[in-house]
Amino acid sequence: TVPGEWPCPGDGRCPQDSYLLPYFSALNQYLAVGVPVYFVTTGGYDFSSTNGTNAICSSAGCDSDSLI
Fold first, then answer.
1. What pLDDT does residue 1 have?
2. Which of 17, 18, 22, 63 is the most exposed place for a label (fewest CB within 10 A)?
3. How many CA atoms lie within 13 A of 24 on its CB side?
4. What angle do CA 54, 30, 50 make, to 5 degrees?
5. Is the pLDDT of residue 68 over 50?
6. Residue 22 CB: number of other CB atoms within 10 A?
7. 23: region left, alpha or beta (phi > 0 left; psi from -120 to 50 alpha)
8. b/e per residue, 33-51, with b = 16+ CB within 10 A?
């Protein structure tokens, strides 16, 4: 399989009438993610505080200028 694609649709592993096809299609469409990315910080962040965590997070409620 191609990295980043689910194996079922189009590669013959699922029957054409499989109930899983819509599930895998939705995963391909809405869960398109890349490889993991890691950042190494050299200091200055207090990860135990809310402000320190919000400075590097990427989900709802994070600072608009967060690292990620």
1. 45
2. 17
3. 17
4. 10
5. yes
6. 10
7. alpha
8. eeeeeeeeeeeeeeeeeee
Scan for tokens 């608009």, then name that residue.
64
Residues with Cβ within 8 Å of residue 20, at least 6 apart in sequence: 8, 14
Tokens describing residue 54:
């919000």
C-alpha span between 27 and 1 (Å, rounded): 15
**CA gap 53, 63 in Å, rounded:** 9
Any idea which residue has 């399989």 for tokens? 1
